[in-house]
UniProtKB/TrEMBL annotation:
GO terms for biological process: phosphorelay signal transduction system; regulation of DNA-templated transcription. Residues 144-215 form the HTH luxR-type domain. Residues 2-122 form the Response regulatory domain. It comes from Streptomyces pratensis (strain ATCC 33331 / IAF-45CD). The lineage of its organism: Bacteria, Bacillati, Actinomycetota, Actinomycetes, Kitasatosporales. Keywords: DNA-binding, Phosphoprotein, Transcription, Transcription regulation. One of its GO terms (molecular function) is DNA binding. It comes from the Bacteria. This is Two component transcriptional regulator, LuxR family. The modification 4-aspartylphosphate is found at residue 52.
Amino acid sequence: MRIVIAEDDPLLREGLALLLRAEGLDVVATAGTPDAFLAAVDEHRPDLAIVDVRMPPTHTDEGIRAAVEARRRQPGLAVLVLSAYVEQAFATDLLADGSARLGYLLKERVGRVEEFLTALERVADGGTAIDPEVVAQLFARTRPDTRLDRLSPREREVLALMAEGLGNAAIAERLVVTDGAVHKHIRSIFAKLDLAPADGTDRRVAAVLRHLNDAHRRA
């Protein structure tokens, strides 16, 4: 897996590079500015980019805009965004977009190496990795979603595996069932959670978010 890191803090940038290289991952470039990051993406065509939300010159949303531009230039590029704290405006936009191969983690997760690497792998494999604290804040003022109670035990099991970032084939292998059975369960999950196919959102991401929120509430 070829990785580009965009982070304006030199210590964190080089620390991330050392950590990933120690894990046998190929960090092909690091960048401290959005322009340098985009140039690295154009040159190296990485599989995944790790991008800080706040970058020069204004340290507001330059990192996010650079990540969006990078995915425009290289469709399918996996992006894991790092932020010092929950930026609800960006988090909401990210989840509303519903694109796969996206993650949003607080920087404190980097110190929890196993969690960080798991999130990295999930995003690279086509899944979505959203920090539990982000989910908690997005749903902080909402009532518990009782629609989850409609799910059967097997459907809850499928949804939990979806939240781990597994695709249909991987879920089928884990549960020792056919791909068709998994597809049927997922259709039922969407129906029971009132996730219509034409409402402009990614139903898989929306279902996973509800599962994560429920798990956080019960913890």
